[in-house]
Amino acid sequence: MTRNRPTIMDAKEEAKLLRADLAARGEAISHAQALERIAQRHGFRDWNALHAARRDAHPQGWASGGRVSGRYLGQPFTATVLTADQLRPGWVRMVLDLDEAVDVVRFDSFSNLRKRIRVEVGPDGHSRERTSDGVPHVELDP
After folding, report:
1. Which end of the chain is more exposed for a tag (fewer CB within 10 A), N or C?
2. Could you give the CA distance from residue 66 to residue 44 in angstroms, rounded to a whole number?
């Protein structure tokens, strides 16, 4: 049992890696079995218990006063979280005060700088809104 409690996304990634490792050794297990083993590795009775305990958890920096970094419209940023409100399990609405203003326009002859943004991000740290080429507006680093 470990004291480090993974996010749901981390646990799913661990399960994927566990399945691949076991498959390479000739032991095939289902994805559900891998999730159960990962949950037990982290001290939970089963996957449902891990999921219930972690579904509302988000990274520590995703709280008022926290620090985050990532990309906004494809441009790197660091910011202070001014507000953070839980919307539903795993989803947080934040207002970010960017350390340096980000130009949200891609044209050379025109600029529009943003220093403060409001965003809703899911458990993976990505916004639901996307640019025309499919990239999330905001991608927070883990």
Report:
1. N
2. 28
